[in-house]
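#lab-general

N.A. 3:47 PM
ok so I finally got the sequence cleaned up, no stray characters, all 341 residues accounted for. can someone with queue access submit it? mine expired

B.Y. 3:52 PM
send it over

N.A. 3:53 PM
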Amino acid sequence: MSLAIATDGTTQRNWLEKIGAGHIILGVALVLYPLVASDFFLTQIGGYSLIFGMLGLSLMLLAGYGGMVSLAQITVAGISAYAIAILGNNNSNILGFGWPWWLAVPFAVLAAALASALIGWISVRTEGIYTIMITLAIATATYYFAQQNYTIFNGHSGYAGIRAPAFWGIGWRDAKPFYYLCLALAALSYAAVLYGSRSTFGMTLQAIRDNPRRMRALGYHVTAHKVFAWLLSGVIAGLAGVLLVWFNGRVSPGTIGVDAAIDVLIIAVIGGLRHPIGPFLGALVVVLMQTFAIDIVGAERFNTLIGLVFLVIVFVSPDGILGLWGRIKPHLAQESLRPGP
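B.Y. 4:20 PM
back already:
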């Protein structure tokens, strides 16, 4: 009997160690957050931060583990958002097939993933600044094409009147359900990236990032691994696009503009590209600034403020907020271990 108890305790301890105390505390706090937050803070701060955190996470997967910087993540999310508008219902009288959400969502995410894989297949043949320029060119071309095409994208107006589904007696655009939906998909994406980075594929991708020639010489298909990373990134961005179009109730070329593409990059870099939690920290900082700082400095100076914050964080800590915390944490630990007077 004692042996069984010891085994159970060991199993429970191993389970807790794998998850981590920090993840458990953070998870409980996020689950309980709606108990103390108003509807505004649930959706405009909580939900919006989680959505853009997922977009930043899709970039972090490519840049942090694959060494590939993309400015097309909002484009991939936009493809998913447009797919939801076209396959589902909208009030544009242009296109709207009226598919149920459970059929439209998988097709939208699949379209985003395939588009991301195609972008990856085009860009992985380059490195560094050239990859950035190719993805920027794709993002810009998609923006102008959506703006000028009325047959599919409905031009400047885009699509409006897009509603989140209601099932199980729950309206999923209501504040609490929508927050929990964003939290669930964000947590799923976060766990997939975190534990996927420790898998055989994840370790291989990081080795390719560090020395692609050596991995190619060892017989690994470098291009296939990179394109598959783009595919996985597209799934996360596609899910974020679904949440974004349900959040806004509309999608237009402005949703996928160059400004939004740069915002995703800023979010990922501010938070840090070394760990999947970084983009969510960056998203929270940017969303809080967009919500409150704009009233203080004015809309015309807001982008200047964002740029200054970005420069300060990168100058102080090139690894973002996570890197700054990594520097401060050892000093805090030393202070706590010092004997009192």
